Amino acid sequence: MTAHHQDDQAETVLLHLFRGAGIKGLSGISATRLFSQGFLHRPFLAISRETLLTYATRHQLIWIHDESNVDPYFSRNFLRQQVLPLLKTKWPSVCKNLVRASELCREAQVNLDDLAEIDCPLLQALHNSTTSIELGCQELSVNQLMHLSDARLSNVLRWWLQKNAVRMPNYETLRRLFHEVIQADRDSSPEVRWGNWVVKRFHDRLSLHQVDLSLPLDTVQWLDFPNSLALPGIGTLSAQLAAEGIKLSPGSKLEIRFRQGGETLCWHGQTKSLKKLMQEWHIPPWSRSKIPLVYVNQQLAAVVGYAISDLFYSNNVLESYDIQLMMTFVFE
């Protein structure tokens, strides 16, 4: 819980206004929001600083005074010391009125969020989710967006990014998302970046990612198969006996590699290029290098989640292992 008060709210609204914020920014400080594993509450937003100071003095409460709060170099201090006092000489209730305006903006924002869910039904699943990762809502369907006006499309994109805890791009970057990504040809793979984030398109899918600065993934030996194998930055591989899956001969050397280029797979009676197979499976280009490839005695035996080589396929439940990947998502 924090002691933000009415004057803090008024300052915040003015700061956002001077910076050209929209409805959400003009909503100011929220009274309650998610914070770590719990909630952050600000119960005093409707109470003036003067009222709180009078109460604290009367009850001999002790508080810490931050010396930086008197430096007018900082924008908030400049507003507090010079702008708001001047405004109060003409409009004594200016802080109260700014807070009321922020509440009206917050109501308008709720309506805009509801409209976004109507315009893009995929967002409805995200509304009640505490972690969008669980529902795969880092992706949107371009087809659901194409019929929208620019204003409603902007509203959907802002809602989507906000719910995924992404720093909002500026106006120019948002417009680039319209023209360079959403309106791009279906067979292109455009992307737009800002900060640590990038939005990419593959066919009808619009997807959100953190910029990947990781090094190429190394080969990992699966020494204690079928026990689980952790792949840092990717997830965890598990293996269970199943009705069909990969068959291993005693003493086989098992290792996990990642695509480098030029791989082939014996599948459905043909030797096929892994690159072409991934295209047929509609795997986005940026995901292909992170799909685990199971090699047995230096031969490609399986593409986890997609295919098993004819040379290693078995439907004998006593010797067939189904290998699955539990993916790890990290959104900061």
Write the layout of secondary structure elements.
Layout: H1 6-18, H2 23-26, E1 32-35, E2 38-41, H3 49-58, H4 75-90, H5 94-119, H6 122-127, E3 139-141, H7 150-163, H8 171-182, E4 191-194, E5 197-202, E6 205-210, E7 220-221, E8 229-231, E9 235-247, E10 254-257, E11 264-267, E12 270-273, H9 274-280, E13 293-296, E14 299-303, E15 307-308, E16 313-314, E17 320-327
Antiparallel strand pairs: 1-2, 3-6, 4-5, 5-6, 7-10, 8-9, 9-16, 9-17, 10-13, 11-12, 13-14, 14-15
Q: What brief labels describe this structure?
A:
elongated, five-stranded antiparallel sheet, Chorismate Mutase Domain, subunit A, 33% helix, alpha+beta, Rossmann fold, 332 residues, 9 helices, four-stranded antiparallel sheet
Fold and architecture overview:
Strands 7-10-13-14-15 form a five-stranded antiparallel beta sheet, with no helix packed on it. It is α+β, with helices and mostly antiparallel strands. The protein has helices at 6-18, 23-26, 49-58, 75-90, 94-119, 122-127, 150-163, 171-182, 274-280; strands at 32-35, 38-41, 139-141, 191-194, 197-202, 205-210, 220-221, 229-231, 235-247, 254-257, 264-267, 270-273, 293-296, 299-303, 307-308, 313-314, 320-327. The protein is elongated and about 85 Å long. The chain is built from nine helices and 17 strands.
The number of distinct β-strands equals 17
Ranges with pLDDT <50 over ≥5 residues? Answer: 130-136
Average pLDDT, to the nearest integer?
A: 89
How is the quaternary structure best described? single chain
Strand order of the largest sheet: 7-10-13-14-15
Helix content: 25-40%
